[in-house]
Amino acid sequence: MCQALDQWIARAFAPDRLSGTIEALTHASAAASTAEPHTPEQAQARQAIKECERRLARYQAALDAGADPTVVTQWINEAQRDKDAAQKKLDTHPAAPRKKQSPLDARQIRQITESLGDIAQRIQTAALEKKGQLYDALGITISYEHATRAATVRSRPSSPYRQ
Questions:
Q1: CA distance 138 to 64
Q2: Quick one: average pLDDT of 94-110?
Q3: 56 confidence band (pLDDT: 50, 70, 90)
């Protein structure tokens, strides 16, 4: 996975793609500066709610396909209880306070990328222990959705890297 991530980062910062990447980073920075922060508990509750909604949709489809209404009703009631519990958790965990940071503009992002030099070469030649620190600083998280066999990579840089 590390190699694929490194290749993706290298492609994103290749000279022919740099303008597009900077534009995307500018939009992401603006969106992140206005987004509400989420605690791990909130993220977990949101994920549980999504999973319950998927279950409910499957159960409704089973009911529509002629499954035993008594059994499906039990499943639906259980999924709804789980969803209500997750929603209650979401409602009771307030957002974590976060210092407002102004978004980075395209000029700032370009300055940062230029100051780093050949990003592709630096990433590909970096020692593994240094890559771990880099990924941590970039706030890299990877989530894998087994059903769709898709990995989603997110980056939320820590404050020192924003500067």
A1: 46
A2: 72
A3: very high
